[in-house]
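Researcher: Checking consistency across runs. Here is Aminopeptidase again:
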Amino acid sequence: MKWMIRVDMEGVTGVVNMNQVVPGAADYHSGLRMLKHDLASVLEGLLLAPEDRVVLYDIHFWGTNVELDELDPRVSVICGKPNYTPDNMSFVNDTFDGVILLGLHSKAGTPGGLLAHNYEHDIVCMSVNGLVVGEIGLEALIAGEAGVPLVMVTADSEGARETNELLPGTLTVVVKESLGDMSALCYPPSLTRKRLKAAAALCVETAPRLTPFLMSGPIELDMKFKPGALLDKLKTRIYGSFVDEDRIILTGGSVIEAWEQYLIAKA
C-alpha cells in the first residue's frame, strides 16, 4: 500500500515546550530524537510488504526535521515545505491509500491543549464554511479533495480528542496526556513505540472503510489573527480580503485554492 505521512513535532512523544521543536533552540535535539522515535515506530507498522511505499512530507517549521540517513529505501521525503496548490493537490493523489498525521496537536483555543495552535501562533481561529478547524481538520479536508482519507493521527490527548470528534473512525494514538499549554503526562518511548506500531499496522484494514473528508464548495476560509508582523504583512498584500481589522475571508472553489491564497500572502 502507499501512504502519505505529514510530519509535525509538537505532538510527538515527550515534547512539552517550544524549545524542543524550534530549530536551533536549546532542547531541539531532544525533540528531534523523539520525532525520529515516533516516525520509526509508525514506519515499522506500515512497511509490512515489499511493495509498501511511504512518502513523508515534513510540514514542521522549515521542513528540515526528518533525518534521512536511516530511512527504509521504500520511504521518500518532501523537505523544505513547498506550498500546497490546486495543481499539486498537496502532493497527494489517488495513488495513495491514506494520509497519516504524525505528531499533531489540537487547534488554537483548545482548553488545556498542549502547544495548541493553528500553523502560525498568530492565527487565533480559522474556519471552513463555518466549521472551526485546526491543522488536523484542514489537512484532512485538503487530503479529502484529492480523494484520500485521513486514516491515522498521532498526537497528545486533546489532539486525539479533536480527531475523534471531527472524524469518527480515524485511528488515533495518544502519546501523552495534556495537562496544560506546556505540560503533559508523558508516556515512555518503550510504551509509545508499541502503541504507534500497532496502530500503524491497523491502517491497512482501516483505510478501505473510511471516506475522504469533503466540504462542498464554494469555500470560505475565515481566519482571525493576533496583532503583529503577520497581520501587518497580510494587510499590505491582501487588504481586499479583510472583513475586520484582524480578520480575513478567502474564497475559492476548493479548500486548497483558498488556502493557497493565504500561503502566498504570508510568504
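Researcher: Does this match what you'd expect to see?
Model: One thing to look at in this run: The chain has two domains: 2-120+129-209, 219-266.
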